[in-house]
């Protein structure tokens, strides 16, 4: 049974955890190798221990050294919802994702434009949640025209391949335009607890990769971001 990222974000919030989607990020254009001798499953197990709401993995090969097979392996090895991030432009890629146990698929409004709604509907027809990603007011208008229940706000300009600075100013600017019951996810460039606090003033969840992958003590850092939860 495919796990729902939407439901896990809601559940984590009800439990008074911060809803954190933790990315297993193997490589970045800015920092290079991020695994640093660890296995993908090592990272997955650490994230699982920290009560994250879900897992993100980039399958894009050229800039992020991702692989679809690794995505499939992650999905097979966790009960958490897994989001596939890539530059998806076709129904074929939706179908390919649906054949795995992956839960959600990134659809980038800036790339898809007026085809965004069509691919969102295709995701839903195949039992996959769509996370429509925006970076501008124009993108936000596109996202609002779709049936997506998850909208990601990318704090970085993806065309700059992470050479822009981090921070959450884009979330602070764009989130108020998204007048919708869809859940909002602040993505990218979140590296401090101040970024986290500011992002969660406007979003329901955050998506974090680099800050966790580069942490000296990953488990400690992830737990700081997830927070104490409602448990004693
Ligand atoms: O965000 C995108 O649109 C995207 C699409 C395809 C490959 C990579 C993409 N962006 C990079 C990421 O997804 C980030 O790794 C992720 O948002 C985490 O960001 P950070 O915490 O700054 O590593």
From TrEMBL:
<dbReference type="InterPro" id="IPR001468">
    <property type="entry name" value="Indole-3-GlycerolPSynthase_CS"/>
</dbReference>
<keyword id="KW-0057">Aromatic amino acid biosynthesis</keyword>
<dbReference type="InterPro" id="IPR013785">
    <property type="entry name" value="Aldolase_TIM"/>
</dbReference>
<keyword id="KW-0456">Lyase</keyword>
<dbReference type="GO" id="GO:0004425">
    <property type="term" value="F:indole-3-glycerol-phosphate synthase activity"/>
</dbReference>
<keyword id="KW-0210">Decarboxylase</keyword>
<protein>
    <recommendedName>
        <fullName>Indole-3-glycerol phosphate synthase</fullName>
        <ecNumber>4.1.1.48</ecNumber>
    </recommendedName>
</protein>
<keyword id="KW-0822">Tryptophan biosynthesis</keyword>
<comment type="pathway">
    <text>Amino-acid biosynthesis; L-tryptophan biosynthesis; L-tryptophan from chorismate: step 4/5.</text>
</comment>
<comment type="similarity">
    <text>Belongs to the TrpC family.</text>
</comment>
<keyword id="KW-0028">Amino-acid biosynthesis</keyword>
<feature type="domain" description="Indole-3-glycerol phosphate synthase">
    <location>
        <begin position="10"/>
        <end position="225"/>
    </location>
</feature>
<dbReference type="InterPro" id="IPR013798">
    <property type="entry name" value="Indole-3-glycerol_P_synth_dom"/>
</dbReference>
<dbReference type="InterPro" id="IPR011060">
    <property type="entry name" value="RibuloseP-bd_barrel"/>
</dbReference>
<dbReference type="InterPro" id="IPR045186">
    <property type="entry name" value="Indole-3-glycerol_P_synth"/>
</dbReference>
<dbReference type="Pfam" id="PF00218">
    <property type="entry name" value="IGPS"/>
</dbReference>
């Amino acid at each position: 049974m495919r796990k729902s990222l939407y439901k896990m974000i809601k559940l984590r919030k009800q439990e008074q955890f911060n809803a954190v989607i933790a990315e297993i990020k193997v490589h970045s254009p800015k920092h290079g190798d991020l695994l640093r001798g660890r296995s993908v499953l090592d990272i997955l197990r650490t994230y699982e221990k920290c009560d994250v709401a879900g897992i993100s993995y980039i399958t894009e090969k050229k800039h992020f050294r991702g692989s679809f097979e690794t995505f499939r392996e992650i999905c097979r090895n966790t009960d958490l919802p897994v989001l596939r991030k890539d530059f998806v432009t076709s129904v074929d890629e939706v179908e390919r994702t649906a054949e795995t146990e992956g839960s959600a698929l990134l659809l980038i409004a800036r790339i898809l434009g007026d085809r965004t709604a069509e691919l969102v509907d295709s995701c839903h027809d195949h039992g996959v949640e769509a996370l429509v990603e925006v970076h501008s007011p124009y993108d936000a208008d596109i996202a609002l025209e779709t049936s997506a229940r998850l909208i990601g706000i990318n704090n970085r300009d993806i065309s700059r391949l992470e050479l822009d600075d981090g921070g959450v100013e884009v979330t602070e600017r764009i989130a108020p335009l998204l007048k919708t019951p869809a859940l909002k996810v602040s993505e990218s460039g979140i590296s401090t607890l101040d970024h986290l606090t500011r992002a969660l003033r406007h979003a329901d969840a955050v998506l974090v990769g680099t800050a966790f992958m580069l942490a000296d003590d990953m488990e400690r850092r992830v737990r700081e971001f997830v927070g104490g939860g409602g448990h004693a």
